[in-house]
């Protein structure tokens, strides 16, 4: 079966069951700042699961453009992608029972009229309970036991079989998953709950919601007998062929590099068509990372000359299904080329520096020097290792990892919430100068937090924090908008503490002792038994201005922050306010 047919069959199947097809939404989520990119088909339907009337009717399906940065390190194997298309069928308020949803999924996969996947290749799992005290899904278990021909069913914990929410709040619930040849293809989610920003679960307002997600490329692989990986299916065939056409030689590692190029450039094309531009922040940073990694692999393959033609092949492959690729073809190619040229200039410098490091090193390159090449020039560790190996040098990966860890903590607080904890783990390219800005913003955020409590009272609790080189964003519980006077008071007070040039002290303490002393903590975070406490105090009066549990790093004196300015105060979700602030 081919790409087009699999798509058509999915739509025909669910139309016959009364569903209406809804076009894919953008990769940039609308009206949901809690996620960076659309990670699931349900994203655009989130409000419908939370009680808002659906403009699409009660039963909907979509083939959604999705992006999961969390899988980037697995790209190159047979089944993982960053960008992918997701089939989904949705029912918003109890119209479809669990049993019905399970039977539909089984019929679509196993029936000779639809996907005709051999029954012996299909297995399934259901939820065996324990997230926030929720019970095992007995109803799903019973429904699965009635499925004629399904031979193997397992019970799994919440790490496997509980889905959502996307971002910090939203619909979520237990799942039934279907696997073909052991690979997960379809996630049938029963949205029984709504997860609040503090992690508590309340019953879904409209009753049981059905939200399913099935990776198109994985499904296509299961119905393409001659394919061993998703890259062998006709979704990728012309793209892989074009990369190969530009790749001389068959050295080791070629297959993996070709796959990485195919995945990353495909993702880049779709991000560009949704108006993302390469930059150092948020979606732009994801795009930059993909493009740069693809370029390094193309370079390794000696296939850089094919860059533009490969992008053309991607647009050609998907243009019939996503007309926005065709209508924006020139823009996509132009922006990709610009980023390529910019990056090639940087890596030329980075390579020169690497050559110097290599000539100065005996036996091994220190982790600090490797990290410096990585942080300043964007040279990935793999690349440095390969170059070093050609000169019989090793790279001290342990000390690289240490340098990386301490650097990573700077941006972790902010980036984690959006990158799902994976964003920085394998390739942040934050320069020294950027680190300093983020560190200053970080200390400013502690002062802001203290000021909010001082002027608004104990109702204020941190609900989230996000830092990048442009701004700090701080979410906190509070029931109403701040008045202009309150905003001014908070801002003035923070600036006063900055002007006083107060010292910032770091101490390691047992967690209970720190909490006992009234250090502020973030309730969503799990802390170790011994924690770092950062205190800003006034040596003239011994007054404690701010005290927080925190991984740091921070400036050593508040005057380093310079001028602090609140740019925006708005609602973030029910009972939660959001402040954006910048520094000079
Ligand atoms: N919303 C279901 C999934 O993404 O797997």
TrEMBL record:
Entry keyword Secreted: no
Domain of life, source organism: Bacteria
One of the record's GO molecular function terms: ATP binding
GO biological process terms, semicolon-separated: alanyl-tRNA aminoacylation
EC class (word): ligase
GO terms for cellular component: cytoplasm
Family named by the database record: Belongs to the class-II aminoacyl-tRNA synthetase family.
Record keywords: Aminoacyl-tRNA synthetase, ATP-binding, Ligase, Nucleotide-binding, Protein biosynthesis, RNA-binding, tRNA-binding
InterPro entries in the record: aa-tRNA-synth_II/BPL/LPL, Ala-tRNA-lgiase_IIc, Ala-tRNA-ligase_IIc_anticod-bd, Ala-tRNA-synth_IIc_core, Ala-tRNA-synth_IIc_N, Ala-tRNA_ligase, Thr/Ala-tRNA-synth_IIc_edit, tRNA_SAD
UniProt protein name: alanine--tRNA ligase
Keyword Ligase: yes
Species assigned in the record: candidate division Kazan bacterium RBG_13_50_9
Alanyl-transfer RNA synthetases family profile domain span: 1-584
EC number(s) per entry: 6.1.1.7
Upper taxonomic lineage: Bacteria, Bacteria division Kazan-3B-28
């Amino acid at each position: 079966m081919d790409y087009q047919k699999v798509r058509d069959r999915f739509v025909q199947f669910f139309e016959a069951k009364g569903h209406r097809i809804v076009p894919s939404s953008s990769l940039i989520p609308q009206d949901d700042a809690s996620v960076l990119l659309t990670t699931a088909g349900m994203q655009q339907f989130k409000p419908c699961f939370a009680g808002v009337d659906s403009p699409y009717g009660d039963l909907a399906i979509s083939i959604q453009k999705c992006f999961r940065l969390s899988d980037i390190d697995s790209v190159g194997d047979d089944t993982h992608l960053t960008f992918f298309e997701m089939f989904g069928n949705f029912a918003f308020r109890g119209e479809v029972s669990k049993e019905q949803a399970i039977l539909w999924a089984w019929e679509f996969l196993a029936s000779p009229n639809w996907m005709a996947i051999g029954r012996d290749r299909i297995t399934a799992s259901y939820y065996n309970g324990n997230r926030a005290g929720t019970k095992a899904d007995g109803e799903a278990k019973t429904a699965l036991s009635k499925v004629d021909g399904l031979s193997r069913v397992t019970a799994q914990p919440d790490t496997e079989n509980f889905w959502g929410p996307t971002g910090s709040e939203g619909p979520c619930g237990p799942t039934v998953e279907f696997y073909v040849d052991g690979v997960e293809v379809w996630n049938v989610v029963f949205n029984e709950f709504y997860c609040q920003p503090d992690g508590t679960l309340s019953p879904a307002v409209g009753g049981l919601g059905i939200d399913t997600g099935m990776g198109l490329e994985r499904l296509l692989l299961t119905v393409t007998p001659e394919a061993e990986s998703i890259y062998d299916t006709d979704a990728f065939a012309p793209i892989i062929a074009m990369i190969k056409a530009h790749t001389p030689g068959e050295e080791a590692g070629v297959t993996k590099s070709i796959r990485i190029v195919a995945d990353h450039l495909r993702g880049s094309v779709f991000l560009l068509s949704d108006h993302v531009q390469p930059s150092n922040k948020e979606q732009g940073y994801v795009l930059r990372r993909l493009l740069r990694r693809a370029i390094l692999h193309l370079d390794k393959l000696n296939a850089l000359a094919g860059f533009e033609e490969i992008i053309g092949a991607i647009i050609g492959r998907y243009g019939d299904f996503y007309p926005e690729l065709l209508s924006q073809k020139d823009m996509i190619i132009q922006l990709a080329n610009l980023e390529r040229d910019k990056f090639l200039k940087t890596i030329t410098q980075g390579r020169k520096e690497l050559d110097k490091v290599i000539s100065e090193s005996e036996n091994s390159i220190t982790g600090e020097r490797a990290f410096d090449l990585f942080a300043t020039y964007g040279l990935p560790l793999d690349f440095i290792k390969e170059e070093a190996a050609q000169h019989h040098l090793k790279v001290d990966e342990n000390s690289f990892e240490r340098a990386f860890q301490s650097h990573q903590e700077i941006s972790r607080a902010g980036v984690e919430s959006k990158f799902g904890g994976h964003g920085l783990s394998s390739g942040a390219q934050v320069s020294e100068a950027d680190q300093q800005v983020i560190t200053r913003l970080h200390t400013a955020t502690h002062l802001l937090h203290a000021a909010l409590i001082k002027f608004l009272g104990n109702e204020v609790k941190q609900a989230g924090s996000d830092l990048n080189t442009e701004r700090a964003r701080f979410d906190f519980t509070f029931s109403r908008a701040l008045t202009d006077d309150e905003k001014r008071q908070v801002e003035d007070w923070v600036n006063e503490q900055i002007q006083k040039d107060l010292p910032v002290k770091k101490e390691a303490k047992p967690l209970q002792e720190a909490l006992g002393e009234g250090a502020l903590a973030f309730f969503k975070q799990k802390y170790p038994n011994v924690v770092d406490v950062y205190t800003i105090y006034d040596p003239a009066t011994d007054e404690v201005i701010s005290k927080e549990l925190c991984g740091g790093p921070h400036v050593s004196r508040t005057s380093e922050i310079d001028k602090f300015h609140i740019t925006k105060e708005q609602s973030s979700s029910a009972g939660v306010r959001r402040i954006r602030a910048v520094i000079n």
